[in-house]
Amino acid sequence: MRRILILSALAVLCAGQTSNRGAIDRSTLDPTCKPCQDFYRYATGGWADKNPIPADQGSWGTFPELMDANLERERTILDASAAPGMTGDRKRLGDFYSACMNTAAIDAAGARPLQPALNRIAAISTRRDLVPWLISAELGRNLTPTRIVSTPDVNDATRIIAGIAEEGLSLPERDYYFRDDAATKAIRDAFFQHVTKMMQLLGDSPETAAAEARTVFDFETVFAQSTLTRVARRDPYQSDHDMEFAKVKELAPTYDWDAAFRLLNVPESVTVDVENPEFLKTFNRQLESAPLETWKTWLRWRVLNAGAQYLSQAFYDEWFHFSSTVLSGVTQQRPRWKTCVAAADRSLGDTLGKLYMEKYFPAESQRRMQQLIVNMRAALGDELRTADWLEPETRKNALLKLDSFDPRIGGTVKFRSYSDVQVARDGYLAAKDSVELDLRRFDVAKIGKPVDRTEWSMTPPTVNAYYSSQRNSITFPAGILQFPFFEADADDALNYGAIGAVIGHEMGHGFDDQGSKFDAAGNLKNWWTDQDKANFEKRAACVTNQFETTDVGGGAHHTGKLVTGEAMGDLGGLTLAYKAYHKALAGKTAPVIDGFTGDQRFFLAWGRVWAQNQRPEEQRQQLATNPHPLAKFRVNSTLENMPEFYAAFGCKQGDAMVRPVAEQCKLW
């Protein structure tokens, strides 16, 4: 439900590479490929040839490499936290990591940690028993078709209201249940086999397990028919359905909403945003008409699927096979310590993140980032003031939104405690369940209260960044503020071409096809004149069409309207970064370093942060589900619209990297 636009972690550079302080490593280039023909290959081809995808990764590039390096840093913190003598949250963090690493205890327990939940499902004997089970599951992981959550009110960004989110699908998104292409059919076949094997691990016979797999798929297909598409979810108006509590009960009267809200201590007086009313109606029909045994089979599967990665090796292996091998082409599991470090970051992220910042985030990085953001904000202000297609009213509102941007760097200033989480080193799933219970209580306790603007949606070690349309904030965790994205004392060409473009990307989300629908205060409100809105939509449509019509290989294409926002963020962000870079030069000519001009190094810095090799399976999944374009096209398709790039490398009309003038996309 929370509407946050995020720059996904999609790509990295070669492992162990060290900074050259303003230099471009020529060994990462492919000089046999001309920059005006395929800049992505020119900028990253040498690296790609020398860096095959590790067996435990779906892709390998700048992002996963930096994430791996951060896992190493976090590991040192966790090892120290697991030592004797720790107290409070520090001890809790060490115990959680140790519980995950205690594979002997996990294997000895087998499926026993699931047994209490499975016994309760087995005890459901009438339809009257079903709803109480579903209500009780609200306190745990995502097991049920709907979920009560906290969400910012899109119509009043100062307050948190209740939301009813649609859940319940096991496949990556709704269209996996319906598409008829060979690859999707193969995934569905693998899903049937996966559910069958998992149910057999619980002790069911092969015949029974196979029938259960069909039941699970058919049951979820009904829900998938009412689930919003990925494109629809990007439109905030399609998921904005504020209503009173009584109206929610009218949509799904068979569910006991009174009991659910009481269990979560959510007052019935709050406004409720139902993400998808049609889905709620489907949920009610399933409660009324789906056979009780169908519900019980599906709930057993949900409990098993949610817990499998925390169980013994046989369960983990089968979970990994489908989620990683089938969907992403990954054939080898990560070392256990990496799995456990990532789990600790997801589960007790504030405790780990605070320690990470103290150890790995210097004050100089904070200061330099603040200056970069000031310069990027000034560059965007110049664009808004001089855009000849904006009328005075729209220009005023746009500048007000820019002035209201809330930049956040490094990590939250208010780290939460996990004092209610119970952790024993011989009970990993129980520890994870305690974390989930604590998280659920923390989440729903926000409902009915003012928005806490200090809250972050990412932990400090995260290699990522994001824009929140309802907080009008841009956020840069400490994890991404490292080479090759950023160095406090690096050459401006490299910093602006890399992290500067990321800053511009996140700022640009405030004015993309989705963020542009929110005003300076974070409210869903049209602040455009009709003429300006039409002009803006025409510019957005240019980007949509570019990605919709570009063949990414084998006749495949992006879904244009799915990637429009992120592609606009890239184009606007890199354009702003270039202008800010030249503003920082203050009329001076950048030095030539290693044979490259300042402008050339700026664009090479942009290209190298997206260096990536990717498995076909992961690429297919990204095209189907991810609003971010493939790495190659984040680079090339963006640069194809930039005359500044043409000039830097001497590109001319007729070159592959130069779009015809009439087709070049421009945002401001």
Strand elements, count: 10
**Number of H/I helices:** 26
User: Which blocks of ≥5 consecutive residues have pLDDT under 50?
Assistant: 1-20
Q: The CATH topology of the largest domain is what?
A: Collagenase (Catalytic Domain)
Query: Strands across the major sheet, in which order?
Result: 1-8-9-7
CATH-assigned homologous superfamily of the largest domain? Collagenase (Catalytic Domain)
Distance between the termini: 30 Å
**How much strand content do the residues show?**
5-15%
Oligomer: single chain
Main β sheet profile: 4 strands, mixed
Q: How many structural domains does the protein architecture include?
A: 2
CATH level-1 class of the largest domain = Alpha Beta
Mean pLDDT: 94
Structural class: alpha+beta
- The CATH architecture name of the largest domain reads 3-Layer(aba) Sandwich
Radius of gyration over all CA atoms, rounded: 25 Å
Shape: globular
3D structure, described in words:
Helix content is 53%, strand content 7%. It is an alpha+beta fold. It has two domains: 4-72 and 350-414 and 452-663, Collagenase (Catalytic Domain) (3-Layer(aba) Sandwich), CATH 3.40.390; 112-333, Neutral endopeptidase , domain2 (Neutral endopeptidase, domain 2). The strands form three sheets. Strands 1-8-9-7 form a four-stranded mixed beta sheet, covered by helices on one side. A four-stranded mixed beta sheet has the order 3-4-6-5. β3 (146-153) and β4 form a beta hairpin. The radius of gyration is 25 Å and the shape is globular.
